[in-house]
Design goal:
- The protein is mainly β.
- About 5% of the residues lie in helices and about 55% in strands.
- It is globular, with a radius of gyration of 17 Å.
- The N and C termini lie far apart (about 45 Å).
- About 25% of the residues are buried.
- Residues about 1-20 have low confidence and may be disordered.
Length: about 160
Amino acid sequence: MLLALSIPMLVWHAQCQAFRNCDPSLDSDVFRGSSYYFIGELEFDENGGAARGTETHYNYSNAGEQGVVACHVTYSTSGIYDPASALFLLDAERSGHSHDCESEFIEIAYPLVTSYTLQVSVRANGLFDVVRADSGEEVGTGSWEEGAVSYKTAEVCELY
């Protein structure tokens, strides 16, 4: 049986501030830039089988005189979980975005559908690491509860 995710898993989003990870010697108010990260939440059968959830990408850009513009893009994910290898094989479909997102940006940066495989490595402290199974690329870290996981990527800052 799939379990509902708990509200505390969403606390990461509440702590976000645009450009907080830029080099302090760079003035991100003068340069055009963006700060982004994403959060994934999955519910799954721990014995193997169905997995479903969401992955939301948070983008913040300083659009000049307009101040910081937030653009959030959400994917609905579904697939399977294999407990022997700790793999999630997921299909993702773009299911929504905030009103401030430019349609051209969404079309270029976020395909309508995509697939990927995540591998989970549990740490002794209850947290876990998430990597792309095909490349070994680190995705982020998160927490694991019975039948539910949530993970967050590192926030990245780019100045143009």
